[in-house]
Design a protein that fits this description.
The chain has one helix and four strands. By secondary structure, it is α+β, with helices and mostly antiparallel strands. The strands form two sheets. Strands 1-2 form a two-stranded antiparallel ribbon. The longest helix has 8 residues. It is rod-shaped, with a radius of gyration of 22 Å. The chain starts with 9 loop residues before the first helix and ends with a strand.
């Protein structure tokens, strides 16, 4: 079995784990109704996406 030759330092471990932090979602404004929505998603309040009505709300 493979075994590490050197011990991984605390700093190196922490640097690697720093990439796994949770980030707050970024919201954008819907151009139709001005509500906050996630980017590249259908607006939940008006049902528009890329200027077209996808679902009737």
């Amino acid at each position: 079995m493979a075994v590490p030759k050197k011990r991984t330092s605390k700093t190196r471990t922490n640097r690697r784990r720093a990439q796994k932090k949770a980030r707050a979602p970024q919201f954008v404004e819907c151009p139709q109704c001005r509500e906050k929505k996630l980017p590249h998603r259908i607006c939940q309040s008006c049902g528009h996406y890329k200027g077209e009505e996808i679902i009737e709300v």
